[in-house]
């Protein structure tokens, strides 16, 4: 009973043309009965189809100029230093200090601005933010670098400056000093 219902549905789903019927009778293979494997007749035969690939000539010069530079550029040459932006190259002779400051790949000092939430302002009920300058890439005696930096900044700015040293990462956080004053210190040391 169930097999006859399946056979009727299979035959109703799949329309067999007269040409297929003629081919099935003319073939010498033994005829397969639909009820033996109904799914073979219900599903269409799977043929492997591969996508066609066509190569198109493209002018990649427009894309290449947007790609990042793979090689670190050379130190730029200027007629006079410091430049208009305040940049200057490191000194040729390395300073005889117990610490060293590594520059970034783009030949700038590794100084970063960090904003931290500070105390709650009771009048406006809003948080104040403290701006910290983070000096990264300090090798050697980080505490000696922090001491020299703090004494330079306090004499330059005429007020106390808060600092924090992270010896494992080679970082110094400075609160209460502008970035330009910190740059001035490291440029004066020859870094």
TrEMBL record:
Q: What is the lineage of its organism?
A: Eukaryota, Metazoa, Ecdysozoa, Nematoda, Chromadorea
GO biological process entries? translation
> One Pfam family for this entry, by name?
Img2
Q: Which PANTHER family match?
A: LARGE RIBOSOMAL SUBUNIT PROTEIN ML49 (PTHR13477:SF0), MITOCHONDRIAL 39S RIBOSOMAL PROTEIN L49 (PTHR13477)
Q: Where in the cell is it found?
A: Mitochondrion
Going by the entry's taxonomy, the superkingdom of the source organism is recorded as Eukaryota
> What are the entry keywords?
Mitochondrion, Ribonucleoprotein, Ribosomal protein
Primary location recorded for the protein, binned into one broad class: mitochondrion
Q: Which GO terms describe its molecular function?
A: structural constituent of ribosome
Q: What is this protein called?
A: Large ribosomal subunit protein mL49
Concerning its family, UniProt says: Belongs to the mitochondrion-specific ribosomal protein mL49 family.
Q: Which residues cross the membrane?
A: none
Source organism: Caenorhabditis auriculariae
Q: Name one GO cellular component term.
A: mitochondrial large ribosomal subunit
The protein's matches in InterPro entries, at most eight in alphabetical order, are given as:
Ribosomal_mL49
